[in-house]
Amino acid sequence: MSEDKEVFGGDFSRTNLRAQVRNQMLIGAGVAFGLVGGVVAFIYALIFIGTLLPPESKEAVDPTPDSFSAYEITQLVDRA
Description:
3 helices, 80 residues, mainly alpha
């Protein structure tokens, strides 16, 4: 940790500091773009895979009809 390297290369001019800040913000924006783009690409990949499935698989009855707890929610609303 004890390096002889000076912070910002020893140049604290306004131009150099602005360039350092701009570069850091562009790197952060690139990372954010990569993360968001990865999530969007994953969603579109799932949609594409879904289009390859046969139509019969989309017409099937829900194997877990009670998977959503709407029954419990309506009971709580009726009590209020």
